[in-house]
């Protein structure tokens, strides 16, 4: 029995439905209507209809299927009106209208929702789209951010982002990128593409201090790190995969440190110097649970190993009592899967924690000669740090200066400048 | 959907690398695609030295020796296929033996609006 309620309470309820379920409605409408833009129009139409009708009729018992069904009918109406002007209108209409919409509609919608969400994720993260298009499209369609929020997060103008999204949708349509969950034999590489998008989104958010003053226009700053975690969690719920599990664990364990990573002035605090009591224990517990699941599945991937490294850090009360030999062994394992110079550098840092900076310095030469690392500020920061620990201040200053010249974020620059000042004071 | 799969490769290297496909392998793959019912046409091309480019300007036919554009990699052959969607087209394209030494550009065919 529908319950009638006050207008403000109803508006708030509809707003909440939009927050929680608009992506679900959209994902299903794209499948039913076969087109992103048509589905987005239908989504808006459905919510507008709810605002008009529900004050009279009350909220339906199953509001989500009601919204999907209403959106679909609105789209069919619109197509009928436009039929003469749209070249493929008739064909599309015949396809859409033939979809069953009887009593079982609500049940069907509930059952198909997980697949529809995955269809949306896999389509937005399709490797035939450019990586930046995948990121923008995922934030817009899967996370429901506005173009303005995405633009702000990537320091781009809204029109650049809007254009990126329009082009991506055009390619989806013109090249017939299918709205489907990839078949089992193609799933592994396609999941990797999704993981990459989620990880890049997280890093984009993670590289910024978390407590930023609210922008003057009052527009809410999108928390990309949190969006990425929500996405990873949803992905894992709907489709279990070891690396999805490892990825979620990694994001949680890194995000657990967010309150301790920056000073109040936005300066970076290194892992060794962080106040570990400010790490989010609940998040660490959840992260460790996912690491254990990922590691016990037998097929260990790069995200799971990185999560295991983060877990070792999480379990030690301070830097000195960290199980560095274990971290070094994990980096060796990671290097076997991902033989990149960045992993090699991390392995070397762990090595220095086990055997001291002098032994580590002896192994630094090949990395300094690696052209892939020539622009990587952390290599020079690490080299500087080894020299600083050995009291070789002249060499340390040289390397810190090189690192500073290559640093890309304010937080990194501030940190390196501080180190230089400290050394100059000696 | 029709897709044109354009096989590009450095033609100096196409036949001379250890992983270069032999004609028999290319023929076998083309037959395999044909048997799956998705082949509309496929051909290997002679080298760009044999190309002639045609332009029509102010009613005059202008000919020039060589390909439309000098590039590092040249068009070596093509497949015109019928595929359900881009995923199927990409899968077929990935199987083209020359993809190991060159690359395959997959382009959806545009329906003329008439």
TrEMBL record, chain A:
InterPro entries: DUF6596, RNA_pol_sigma-70_dom, RNA_pol_sigma70_r2, RNA_pol_sigma70_r4_t2, RNA_pol_sigma_r2, RNA_pol_sigma_r3/r4-like, WH-like_DNA-bd_sf
Gene3D superfamilies: 1.10.1740.10, Winged helix-like DNA-binding domain superfamily/Winged helix DNA-binding domain
Coiled-coil zones: none
Record-level GO BP terms: DNA-templated transcription initiation
GO molecular function annotation: DNA binding; sigma factor activity
Residue stretches making up the DUF6596 domain: 190-294
Every RNA polymerase sigma factor 70 region 4 type domain range: 122-172
One Pfam short name: Sigma70_r2
Domain RNA polymerase sigma-70 region: 17-84
Protein name: Sigma-70 family RNA polymerase sigma factor
TrEMBL record, chain B:
Matching Pfam families: YCII
Residue stretches making up the YCII-related domain: 1-111
InterPro entries for this protein: Dimeric_a/b-barrel (IPR011008), YCII (IPR005545)
Family: Belongs to the YciI family.
Protein name: YciI family protein
């Amino acid at each position: 029995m529908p319950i009638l309620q006050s207008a403000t309470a109803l508006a708030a309820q509809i707003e909440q439905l939009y927050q929680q379920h608009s992506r679900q409605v959209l994902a299903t409408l794209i499948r039913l209507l076969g087109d992103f833009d048509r589905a987005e129009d239908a989504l808006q139409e459905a919510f507008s209809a709810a605002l008009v009708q529900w004050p009279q009729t009350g909220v339906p018992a199953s509001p989500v299927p009601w919204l999907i069904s209403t959106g679909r009918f609105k789209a069919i109406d619109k197509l009928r009106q436009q039929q003469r002007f749209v070249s493929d209108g008739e064909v599309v209409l015949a396809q859409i209208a033939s979809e069953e919409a009887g009593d079982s509609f609500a049940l069907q919608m509930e059952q198909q929702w997980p697949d529809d969400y995955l269809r949306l994720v896999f389509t937005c993260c399709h490797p035939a789209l450019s990586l930046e298009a995948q990121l923008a499209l995922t934030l817009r369609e899967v996370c429901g951010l506005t173009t303005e929020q995405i633009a702000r997060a990537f320091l781009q103008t809204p029109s650049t982002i809007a254009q990126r999204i329009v082009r991506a949708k055009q390619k989806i349509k013109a090249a017939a990128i299918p709205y489907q969950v990839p078949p089992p034999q193609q799933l592994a590489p396609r999941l990797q593409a999704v993981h990459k998008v989620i990880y890049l989104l997280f890093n984009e958010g993670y590289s910024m201090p978390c407590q930023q003053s609210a922008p003057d226009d009052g527009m809410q700053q999108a928390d990309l790190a949190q969006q990425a975690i929500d996405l990873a969690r949803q992905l894992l719920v709907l489709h279990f995969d070891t690396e999805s599990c490892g990825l979620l664990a990694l994001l949680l364990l890194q995000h657990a440190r967010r309150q301790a990573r920056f000073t109040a002035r936005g300066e970076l605090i290194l892992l060794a110097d962080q106040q570990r009591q400010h790490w989010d224990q609940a998040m660490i517990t959840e992260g460790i649970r996912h690491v254990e699941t990922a590691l016990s599945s037998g097929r260990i991937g790069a995200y799971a190993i990185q999560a295991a490294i983060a877990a070792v850090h999480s379990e030690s009360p301070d830097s000195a009592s960290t199980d560095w030999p274990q971290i070094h062994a994990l980096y060796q394992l990671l290097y076997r899967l991902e033989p990149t110079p960045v992993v090699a550098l991390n392995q070397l840092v762990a090595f220095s924690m086990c055997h001291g900076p002098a032994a580590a310095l002896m192994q630094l030469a090949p990395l300094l000669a690696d052209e892939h690392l020539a622009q990587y500020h952390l290599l020079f920061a690490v080299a500087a740090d080894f020299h600083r620990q050995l009291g070789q201040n002249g060499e340390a200053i040289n390397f810190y200066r090189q690192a500073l010249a290559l640093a890309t974020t304010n937080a990194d620059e501030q940190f390196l400048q501080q180190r230089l000042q400290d050394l100059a004071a000696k | 959907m029709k897709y044109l799969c354009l096989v590009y490769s450095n033609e100096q290297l196409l036949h001379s690398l250890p992983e270069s496909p032999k004609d028999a392998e290319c023929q076998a793959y083309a037959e395999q695609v044909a048997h799956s019912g998705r082949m509309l046409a496929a051909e290997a091309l002679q080298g760009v030295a044999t190309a002639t480019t045609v332009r029509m300007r102010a009613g005059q036919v202008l000919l020039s020796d060589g390909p439309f554009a000098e590039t590092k990699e040249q068009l070596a052959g093509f497949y015109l296929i019928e595929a359900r969607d881009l995923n199927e087209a990409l899968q077929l394209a990935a199987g083209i033996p020359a993809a190991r030494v060159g690359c395959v550009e997959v382009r959806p065919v545009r329906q003329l609006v008439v």
